[in-house]
Amino acid sequence: MRVLVAMSGGVDSAVAAARLVADGHDVTGVHLALSKNPASYRSGARGCCSLEDSHDARRVADKLDIPFYVWDFAEEFHEAVVEDFIAEYRAGRTPNPCLRCNEKIKFAAVLDRGVALGFDAVATGHYADLRRHDDGSVSLHRAADAAKDQSYVLGMLDQGQLSRCLFPLHDVEKPVVRQEAAALGFGVAKKPDSHDICFIADGDTQGFLSRYLDDRPGPIVDSDGQVLGEHRGHHRYTVGQRKGLDLRVPPPTGEPRYVLSIEPVSNTVVVGARGDLAVRTLRGIRPTWTGSPVEGPWRGQAQYRAHGVPQDATIALADGELSVVLDDPASGVAPGQTVVVYDADRVVGSAVIAEAR
């Protein structure tokens, strides 16, 4: 099988490529250049998107003796990921740019180009499990390593995309991946994982957003509308945030206050007690399905953060929107986040959270 491996420069994609070579596939490595000026994004060997990462990926490809290319996706990345990130914060929502990158770049643009060039599949170093069935369908499941499972950030992929994907690390735990990399002589064997947003070089999300969004002051109010302080731009806040509120009016109970909601039209940030963050019902828009749509209602699990704990829920599709009713209340759920729904360890679909109450 001709396989195109997206090589980030980290240890996971390096070992994924090595496993495919060992299995006898015709493997080609590709590194994605996501900025016209790499220095404007993160620098340093952190595992994704920097100039050093492209060199690390090339060195691994050389050791494996496979072809290696750098593909320029800077324009597509800026439009689909960076501009979307800014627009979502402008609208008072909290996006996940890594999930958006998977959706629009790694498993859309790259896959389309790879298929056009004659490749049979695209492989990555994601920790997730694909199972192929006798009827030709493919199902997406959690990886063997629960601590590293990345099925959440793949929950927006459809059947056509999944059918051309390979995840060679589905059955292995991270320490074993590092051992395999060391045994193969890869310099990335001890390279730390990447956790930051790749296009925010210094990790200062608020500073980054302030270059694009207006730091227009506005009121911070409680749920009754009483003005408690002033903010310096609503994009500096997200639901569940506690620090940085700088309120002038102390809470009557002495309990700390948290951001409950952001109202961009009135430029208002609403705060309240921790208990006020509790929600039971999530309304999701733009649902996607890894297989056929499931109307429901049905019993499953919902996850709304990449490393969150799945929660039991009743799930239903109605009028093109996903309704998720959690058995137990959740805290700090923000519009703009993605909810991924599971049937046991199988990913069923996903939706963007429009409302949590």
UniProtKB/TrEMBL annotation:
Residue ranges constituting the tRNA-specific 2-thiouridylase MnmA-like C-terminal domain according to the UniProt record: 280-353
Disulphide linkage map: 101-198
Principal location listed in the UniProt entry: cytoplasm
SUPFAM superfamilies on file: Adenine nucleotide alpha hydrolases-like
Catalysis: reaction(s): S-sulfanyl-L-cysteinyl-[protein] + uridine(34) in tRNA + AH2 + ATP = 2-thiouridine(34) in tRNA + L-cysteinyl-[protein] + A + AMP + diphosphate + H(+)
Domain of life: Bacteria
Domain (tRNA-specific 2-thiouridylase MnmA-like central): residue spans on this chain: 207-272
Keyword ATP-binding found: yes
EC numbers, comma separated: 2.8.1.13
Binding-site list for ATP: 6-13, 32, 125
Active-site positions on this chain: 101 (nucleophile), 198 (cysteine persulfide intermediate)
Enzyme class: transferase
UniProt-annotated location(s): Cytoplasm
Family the UniProt entry places it in: Belongs to the MnmA/TRMU family.
Function (record text): Catalyzes the 2-thiolation of uridine at the wobble position (U34) of tRNA, leading to the formation of s(2)U34.
Protein's name in the database: tRNA-specific 2-thiouridylase MnmA
Organism whose genome encodes this protein: Tessaracoccus lubricantis
Gene: mnmA
